[in-house]
Amino acid sequence: MNEVLLDVRDMAVSFGGVRAVDGLSFTVREGEVLSVIGPNGAGKTSAFNCVTGFYRPSSGSVRFAGTDITGKRPAVIAASGIARTFQNLRLFGDMTILDNVRAGMHVRIRQNFLDAVLHTPRYRRSEAAATAEAHRWLDFVGLRYDRTALIRNLPYGEQRRVEIARALAREPRMLLLDEPAAGLNHGEKAQLLDLMRRIAGLGIAVVLIEHDMGLVMEVSERIVVLNYGKEIADGTPGQVRSDPAVIEAYLGVEDGEQS
Amino acid sequence: MHNLAQLVFNGLFVGSFYALVALGYSMVYGIIKLLNFAHGDIYMLGAFAGLTTLSLGSGALGGGFLALLVIMLVAMLATGTFGVVLERVAYRPLRNAPRLSVLITAVGASFALEYGIAVAYGPNPRVYQIGVSGGAFEFAGARLTYAQLAMMAVAVVLMVALDALVRRTRTGRAMRAVALDPKACLLMGINVDRVISRTFFLGSALAGAAGVMAGAYYGKVDFLMGFTIGLKAFTAAVIGGIGNMRGAVLGALVLGLLESFGVALFGSQWRDVFAFAFLILFLTLRPTGLLGERVTERV
Amino acid sequence: MVMNNELPTPSGEVGEEASAYARAVDERGQANVALAGHGVGRPRARLAGALSAVLASRWLGAVVAVLAVALPLLNADTYLIRIATDALIFVMLAVGLNIVVGYCGLLDLGYAAFFAIGAYTSGVLATKFGWPLLATAPVVVVAAVAGGLLIGGPTLRLRSDYLAIVTLGFGEIIRITANNLDFTGGPNGLYGIPDFGDFGLRSDIAIYWVTAVVVCVAVLFASRLGRGKLGRAWRFVREDEDAAEAMGIHTYKVKFAAYIAGAVFGGLAGVLFAAHQTAISPPSFNFLWSALILMAVVLGGMGSTPGVVVGALAISLLPELLRGAENWRYLIFGLLLIAVMIFRPQGLLPARTGEPKPRRRFGRAARKPSEVEA
């Protein structure tokens, strides 16, 4: 069994009386593909936001690769090796596709303001290397558009691809995908499945929030089911599928059926 | 001038002006999360509207307190309407634009208003032909003029009326609802646009009233008089808790008192610096203000 | 962590033969396929295309700079030199504010504060301590940075509306303080500020040349900053702060960098101003100035260096053409600001979006990834 990478214990956060996350505990191991599922309002995105530092948990702890990251600033948490995508696709709309991917690798680019101002050889090298690497990540996710175009001109499915490329450019140890299949058609979902497998092939742990059960069952090694801010089941797809608590929460889930 | 009671009274007096303007600021912020940068200039507009009314109706109104009330009402109507027009023309088209755009537009509106008045009335200060002097009395060592008391009374009446409106009428409930959740209001069939217009009307009318009273009390008006008042009103709203109407009043009174004591300690040329220093202090240490609610922003 | 050049290639379209897209990816070349709504090859309106091409040309800036420096050789009329110096100083202020507002999206309404800090620092050092003006420049930079740290510290944590008003408040604080202290000359200000030194030329031409060189360099630096890593970070923060944080970008520090960069530009412009005017007083640093600089940035095109330069020239030179109607001018500026925000928020000469013209074809296998840490 691989090392535990992410260790969430008894995490809780409330919004004005609503307990979005209520004593949630789960782990993610190195390189595994984990899905987080649950009815709407179960606290999945809130849990993601707590882990990535956008919300400060009111109690509980989050440890990543042995370090306590509870309540730290998102930038600090991201720098420690966690990358994420957003449910509502938060790309940098008025910038090019390449620039968006460069955002992911931003902190790794070795260039300071003097380099930029004086156009030193280091500036030229770092810019060229960044561009080349951005292209490689876009190739990896299979983006087939003119990459100098503005991102908001792209179709939705392609924008999702770029968001994943941007997250991958962080070279994270763990990638959190928040509903990556939302709004995708059948063919696009098949490509997403393939992409997630290839990401896992790179050794990156993938944690995804998803509603498409077919996709979840196909790609996950393990599934955590949330309801009312707490985990109600945690196991392999087969175990979760037949777990009575899960069935009750969902009012029945059949193979391939969307919830 | 260092008599404690006098300082307190002066502070409360100035604070009541600030309160009228801060209320409008806070109301508009509460409802559309916009700091109407031109709000202080609406106060100025009220003063000038009063000036024009005065010169138009000169003689017929006399020069006393009654005249003041009449021109104040006229000015309130004028500024209220202007506030509605401003929202419609400059802010509504940008409802979905990034914050920066709306703020810049507000700066433009402020500028246009200031220099529009400068063009129309000339850049020099204009005199207010109203005699609101007349007697004073002593209380605990402080000198309270009837004029000051009368104005404070008017301010209080206006604030109480607004409070009643917001807490007890349908309009007021709608305003509070839209401030909390505009989308839900749309779903409930509330005409959000109209509620916003009404908020602008009320806030601007109050500012206009304050402008008239300021003109009458200080005896003169100029096209830049709204600039500092706008900043002070914002400071007051922040001290009390932005978006919170009672907070706006509380903050204004606190600011008035702080300024009064500050001036006594440091001299009147530092008055504004003192006020802004408090603004920065509050924003740094207690951004939600004295009565404000905690705002966690959802990602 | 696997990161090598043998990344698995993307799988082809399900059930279809390799399209132009897929071939392009495999060959790692440009996919010459049309985007929805555009024809192949991106046709554009001819005039706009030609104009953009001219403006995007790397040589335009050089030509303008040469013209600016050569001006006194063409026409050394005192009046012309004076307004040209004023215009250049205004350009520098606009370019500096552009970093804060245009690149990073922070609405600073008190930018004149840094202008004042620069002018007064060099003015005081020159008149009260006898420093030569050029020597005051480093101190001015330090003062501007210190001012930026002090003002930015509490301010940059705030959301945009509050930021705007607080920066305005700081602008007023600086102005009122300068007005109240004897040390800064009180309401009368400082006078008798020396120029940059006698280069054997007419004094105002010497000042003009120093100004022209400084401003041209400043514009170049600002433009290059915007195109580099930090400039991208500014734009990321401007576009979407949360997403930028999620990328590991420390938004508070990035905002600070923008603010301080702007402060330095403003401060140095202040030195030029002090030399040019030989006398400075508080009214030169009031909100009207901050607002006019902002207008130059907004009307010209936020985030666009050529746009901002044009905007600054327009705002500083037009009044010379329409003298006497000052208040009308400001009224029109105010109305223009509203109109621009509603109808053309990108300004006269919008910022160039898109990649810089490549000199070599990118998309080939990585060359020297050493400058990007693996």
Cα shape of chain A: globular
Q: Count the helices of chain C. How many?
A: 14
| Arrangement of strands in the largest sheet of chain C | 1-2
Q: State the total count of DSSP E strands of chain C.
A: 2
Largest sheet of chain A: 6 strands, mixed
- CATH topology category name of chain C: ABC transporter involved in vitamin B12 uptake, BtuC
Second rung of CATH, namely the architecture of chain C? Orthogonal Bundle
- What is the helix content of chain C? 55-70%
Largest sheet of chain C: 2 strands, antiparallel
Q: DSSP helix count of chain A?
A: 10
Principal-axes geometry of chain C comes out as globular
Low-pLDDT residue intervals, each spanning 5 or more residues of chain A: none
Per CATH, the class of chain C reads Mainly Alpha
Q: List the uncertain runs of chain C.
A: 1-18, 28-44, 359-371
Number of DSSP strands of chain A? 10
Distance between the termini of chain A: 31 Å
Largest inter-chain interface? Answer: A-C, 78 and 64 residues
CATH architecture of the largest domain in chain A: 3-Layer(aba) Sandwich
Task: Characterise this structure.
The complex is a heterotrimer of chains A (259), B (299) and C (374). Chain A is an alpha/beta fold. Chain A folds into 2 domains: 1-81 and 172-259, P-loop containing nucleotide triphosphate hydrolases (Rossmann fold), CATH 3.40.50; 92-162, no CATH class. Chain A contains 10 helices and 10 strands. Chain A has a 6-stranded mixed sheet with strand order 6-7-8-3-9-10, with helices on both faces. In chain A, strands 2-1-4-5 form a 4-stranded antiparallel sheet, covered by helices on one side. In chain A, α3 packs parallel to α6 and α5 crosses α6. With 299 residues, chain B is mostly helical. Helices cover 73% and strands 4% of the residues of chain B. Chain B contains 11 helices and 4 strands; from the N terminus they run ααααβββααααβααα. In chain B, β2 (136-139) and β3 form a beta hairpin. Chain B is globular, with a radius of gyration of 19 Å. Chain C is mostly helical and 374 residues long. Chain C has a single domain, classed as ABC transporter involved in vitamin B12 uptake, BtuC (Orthogonal Bundle). Chain C has helices at residues 20-27, 46-56, 58-74, 78-103, 112-129, 133-155, 160-180, 203-227, 229-239, 241-246, 251-277, 287-300, 305-321, 326-343, and strands at residues 190-191, 279-280. In chain C, strands 1-2 form a two-stranded antiparallel sheet. Chain C is globular and about 55 Å long. Chain C starts with 19 loop residues before the first helix and ends in a 31-residue tail after the last helix. The model of chain C is unreliable at 1-18, 28-44 and 359-371 (pLDDT under 50).
